[in-house]
Amino acid sequence: MTDNNKKITSFRELGLSDLTLDVLNRMGITVPTSVQQQAIPPMMRWYDVMAKAPTGTGKTLAFGIPIIEHIEKHRRALQALILSPTRELALQIGQDLSGFAVNRPWIEVAVLYGGQPIRTQIEALRRKPQIAVATPGRLIDLLRRRSLRLDEVEIAILDEADRMLDMGFIKDVRFILDKMPRVSQIALFSATFSREVMDISYLYQREPVEIRVEEIGQDKPDIKEYLLPANGAERITAIRKILSLADVKRGIVFVNMKQSADMVVKKLRHLKINAAAIHGDIRQQQRERVLSNFRKGNLRILVATDVASRGLDIENVDIVFNYDLPLENENYIHRIGRTGRAGKSGIAVTFLSPGGEDRLDTIAQMTGAQLEEITDLDTFTF
Fold it and tell me: Edge-to-edge strands of the sheet including 131-134?
């Protein structure tokens, strides 16, 4: 184990292979974050891990590096499985893992999720990938079709475990874990240790190493939180003005309803602001296209509902707008956590409609949010 009091300043101190160090160097990643410092050593030693860490602190690399290091070169079988609550997060993890394995051409990663033709994924499985990233529903579908077997999986990761179990996947997760007789390591990565997460840990993990990374120092997202009283069309006008004043390149607007998402996009486009929406009624192929354009910088504003945005992992989001106050208190943290990632600063602006004061007070009390009120947008400096 690492000494938590010892300051680790490089990945080399974690005893990683030259191949891994070379990739990290090429990616410009030099100093491990707290969750990486604490999770990589026990995972390299095949301990079970239960990690609680804020969003945006490098959890994918924390479990991705040990997985890549553990893959046996000459064994063409599924050796590692990562479960994700959403398609978007699964795709992002798959892309990241492929990037980590770029100098190991023998490693193949398959991403399995609903919304894509299942035959495409069956073909990918016929290539005998060593790593699979999957959403629970699609994985079970493939298991029942006998297109996939988990009997040689040795590493199982539950990413965003709290969200996955909160979304009603607990029976699916248990069904999947029960299909892995050879699993040697189970790791849970989560923003919170909910009762459901603790139950899964109790049932399936063996004396897990518990890791808690608090939101302090380098692990506390640098997000400036603001409150702006505005209602109706005032919010659209304010978004346009703030985009100009704050000189931001890319932002996300959160709304509570699908109809609101479409309406906000329409109004922003009328103001010549390049915007697109993602919500439950938008087809998966179109959603992936929108997210791809947003990641590439071809889209300035993404308008999203909470369900559609779960698991989004997008770097370089400069600003988040709460167009509507979130219906669930914890969604405030998940929303603003889309910015201020990977050590970068971010801005979160929450609009307050008349009569919403009590709701905002409840959110602030439950989440610890501290918002600075903008009294005059024309004279305000971000």
Answer: 109-112, 131-134, 80-83, 155-159, 185-190, 49-52, 209-212
Q: Which residues contact 50 (CB under 8 A, 6 or more apart)?
A: 187, 188, 190, 193, 197, 201, 205, 208, 209, 210, 211
**pLDDT on residue 359:** 87
Do 52 and 212 form a contact (C-beta atoms < 8 A)? yes
Instruction: Report how far residue 49's alpha carbon sits from residue 72's, in angstroms, rounded to the nearest whole number.
Output: 21
Which amino acid, 170?
I
Closest alpha carbon to 29 in 71, 62, 67: 62
Question: Which of 216, 223, 284, 220 shows the shortest CA–CA distance to 252?
Answer: 223
Q: How far apart are CA 275 and CA 88, in angstroms?
A: 19
Residues (pLDDT < 50) of the chain are 1-5, 216-219
Per-residue confidence (pLDDT) for residue 2, from 0 to 100? 44
Please provide residue 92's backbone torsions phi and psi, each rounded to the nearest 5 degrees: -65, -45
User: How much is the pTM?
Assistant: 0.66
State both tokens at 108. 């193949």
Instruction: Report the pLDDT value the prediction gives residue 57, as an integer from 0 to 100.
Output: 74
User: What is the pLDDT, as a whole number, of residue 307?
Assistant: 67
Residue 162 CB burial class (10 angstroms; 0-12, 13-18, ≥19): buried
Among the listed residues 174, 181, 223, 220, the one whose alpha carbon sits nearest the alpha carbon of residue 200: 174
Q: Contact at 8 Å (CB) between 325 and 297?
A: no
